[in-house]
Design goal:
Distance between the termini: 18 Å
Helix content: 55-70%
Strand order of the largest sheet: 1-5-4
Number of domains: 1
Bound molecules: zinc ion
Shape: elongated
Strand content: 5-15%
Structural class: alpha+beta
């Protein structure tokens, strides 16, 4: 099936995924999030062994150094959220160049939707693109930067992986669903469209 700007003839709306209103799906996402946080934090502790969050000048802890790192974590998180949604948007456009995007932020989350209809595999690529791109970016920064910057960068990596729990959930749900369908993602919810039986 091909991704397309308008719904092909003979397709009808069936079910979908709505993480806002479906409490059971929301609970599953929260559990995925907790597991991801637990695993990434444990991994960070194993990897960081001798990486201090705060530098020590021989006599005292360098408070300015700690503040700089906290600022990087906060500003980095804000920049991350914006770039995460922009990457979803970029991939929405790659698969259907003429689609219209809608971006937004509520106090709970940021979102990016499109008015086009996507096939399953392109949609999985759109969903996982940000988490994969940033996994590599933060991994490289962790490997290249001085070791006392391990934790600020790694905090952003935890934020990246935990924040993508909704994307992981949607991907798992799509890949385990054997039906052929097109998806419409308005940013809040995803609707499935299947070919009507004659
Ligand atoms: Zn996302």
């Amino acid at each position: 099936m091909k991704s397309t700007l308008s719904l092909p003839e003979g397709f009808v709306k069936t079910d979908g995924i709505n993480l806002e209103s479906n409490k059971k799906q929301l609970l599953v996402v929260a559990i995925i999030q907790l597991v991801v946080i637990a695993l990434t934090v444990a991994m960070g502790v194993l990897l960081s062994k001798s990486s201090p969050m705060v530098q020590y000048d021989g006599e005292s802890l360098l408070v300015g150094d700690l503040i700089a790192k906290i600022v990087v974590i906060i500003l980095g998180s804000v920049a991350y959220v914006i770039c995460h949604e922009l990457i979803h948007g970029l991939f929405f456009k790659i698969f259907v160049p003429k689609c219209k995007l809608n971006f937004g932020v509520s106090f709970k989350y940021a979102y990016c939707g499109s008015n086009a209809y996507y096939a399953k595999i392109p949609y999985v690529v759109i969903g996982l693109a940000p988490v994969v791109v940033f996994f590599v970016v933060f991994l490289l920064l962790n490997l290249l930067l001085l070791k006392d910057w391990f934790w600020p960068i790694y905090c952003l990596q935890i934020f990246n992986l935990a924040g993508a729990s909704g994307d992981f959930f949607v991907t798992a749900k799509l890949l385990s669903d054997k039906r052929e369908f097109l998806l419409l993602d308005n940013g809040f919810s995803i609707a499935f469209f299947v070919k009507k039986e004659r």
